Amino acid sequence: MSSLNIHIGMSMLLHDKKRLLLSTSGIAFAVVIMFMQLGFFNGINDSQANIANLINADLVVIHKKRTHLNKWNRFAPIHLQQIIAMPGVKEGIPIYKDGVGLKNPDTQEVKRIIMYAFPPQSRPFNLKGVTDETWEFLKIRGNVLFDIRSRDIFGDFQIGDNLTINTKPFRLAGYVEVGPNIINDGTLFSGEGSWRDPGDNLIMGLVRLNDNIDKASTIQAIKDKLDDDLLIMSPEQLANREIRYTVINAPIGAVFGIGLIVSLFIGTVICYQILYNEVTDNLPQYATLKAMGFGPNYLIQTIMEEAAVLSVIGFLPGLGLSFLIYDITADATRLIMEFSLLSIFSIFCLTFFMCLFAGYLAMKKVLKLDPAELY
């Protein structure tokens, strides 16, 4: 039987259960670090772009100077009216936005919260938890919807409660699920009749196009007629633009991006130390294999087999622990901390190649080993 068909890497790992547990814990720790860095990185980006992802329209119009969604550059409603009058446009929806003061009923403190106002019958956002009945309630002047995932600083509200917003009375008509971001702690939604003054400028305009038209040519026609101070794009483009701004221009995006790279480096060092100690403690066994005539390729295969097995058995508990930490972090920060198949696969690939690279570094001692060291 060829020596290459004899696999002892797994046996060498399982021989010392205590060492295997410590090795698994070390790699699992590295996996958790990578998951947390990636989770915070994606969580901040997704939370920043969340309102764009909720838009229920074909196009979004914003001011050109509004480089990210937390800026307040507005534009006159007449520009949206001009777009509505163009062929192929089905509907234009004005969106108003303000930072308002919401009184905490328990502490009587006033905390800043974001208020969106719009024509309720247009249903401009795909709001989770909102029923047809809730949309009807929003048509009644003075009714608002409260983001139940807002941070706890605003107090505890029940549907039907009276709210004080900028010293004015409102009624809580229902809950939505949106979530805060790194700048805003919570969100309210209202009908435009409940929160706007005549002549208010828009924070954005949403455009819906007719069916069975050449959308590409219609969009180009709108762009040709659009005022130079305005931008028009799809909700997906707006969300990507927000994420790109956060990653490139916002320091916090770079912090967690660098953190992911650092965590990968830390994981490689941990894996190297584990495999180096594994190799060092088994030098007599490797020397015996060399003395028996097993060549360098077989020794490389054995060490790489150990590295591959360690990557798998270390990844699984790290993944399980990361699920738990994600839930705790999401509950504490209210940021969007979610797993995706892509993120799980990416971290597994990083773990696998990290362990293989560490194995490559550790094997050099074995390849230089003289069988005479057995004695």
Structure characterization notes:
This protein is an alpha+beta fold and 375 residues long. It folds into two domains: 3-47 and 251-374, no CATH class; 59-233, no CATH class. The chain has helices at residues 9-15, 17-48, 50-53, 77-84, 132-138, 215-225, 235-248, 251-281, 283-291, 296-333, 341-362, 364-367, and strands at residues 59-63, 89-103, 110-118, 143-147, 162-165, 168-176, 187-191, 204-209, 230-233. Strands 5-6-4-7-3-2-8-1-9 form a nine-stranded mixed sheet. A hairpin with a 6-residue loop joins strand 2 (89-103) and strand 3. Helix 2 (17-48) packs across helix 7, helix 2 (17-48) packs antiparallel against helix 8 (251-281) and helix 10 (296-333) packs antiparallel against helix 11 (341-362). The protein is elongated, with a radius of gyration of 29 Å.
Low-confidence stretches: none
Fraction in beta strands = 15-25%
Radius of gyration: 29 Å
* Overall shape: elongated
Percent range for helical residues? Answer: 40-55%
Major sheet details: 9 strands, mixed
Q: Give the domain tally.
A: 2
E-strand count? 9
Q: How many alpha or pi helices?
A: 12
- Would you tell me the overall average pLDDT? 86
Distance between the termini: 28 Å
- Order of helices and strands, N to C? HHHEHEEHEEEEEHEHHHHHH
**Structural class from helices and strands?**
alpha+beta
Largest beta sheet: what is the strand line-up?
Answer: 5-6-4-7-3-2-8-1-9
